[in-house]
Amino acid sequence: MSPFHFLFTSILLSLLSCNLYARDEQCVVLGFSEFGNTRTCVENISLPPEHFKEVCERESDEYMRFETTYVAKCPPMYKAVCRGLRTQNGKPLPYVSYLYENDMSFMKKTCIRGGGTWEGGDG
């Protein structure tokens, strides 16, 4: 294999692996219940993949059923964004939540009460 082909193959494999990794950087979580449905997209900032999976893949129970889909980018037309939500220890959570179909007044209070910044959406 010539040096050019080797370099081209290496670059192509790098781009493909980056693209595969990027798919796991956001997840859309749908929640279904008799009281209403929710739709949230979570954008990973710095969580390791196994911890991000824990955030995205929630357990269904008798009240709420969840479906998770991993996406390359959170969809447009979100109603609001919560950034910088903090844990009880005051550490910022390493992800951003885009909200589409949620109880916005409750989510806004929760975001602000949790030390986050609430922003209006693009939709």
Summarize the structure in words.
- The protein is α+β, with helices and mostly antiparallel strands.
- The protein has one domain.
- The chain is 32% helix and 29% strand.
- It has three helices and six strands.
- It has helices spanning 3-23, 49-56, 104-113; strands at residues 26-32, 38-44, 65-71, 80-83, 95-101, 117-120.
- A six-stranded antiparallel β-sheet has the order 3-1-2-5-4-6, with helices on one face.
- A hairpin with a 5-residue loop joins strand 1 (26-32) and strand 2 (38-44).
- It is globular and about 35 Å long.
In brief, what are we looking at here?
The chain has 123 residues and is α+β, with helices and mostly antiparallel strands.
- Stretches with pLDDT under 50, minimum 5 residues: 1-23
The tally of strands reads 6
Number of helices: 3
Content of β-strand: 25-35%
Specify Rg, calculated over alpha carbons: 18 Å
Main-sheet strand order equals 3-1-2-5-4-6
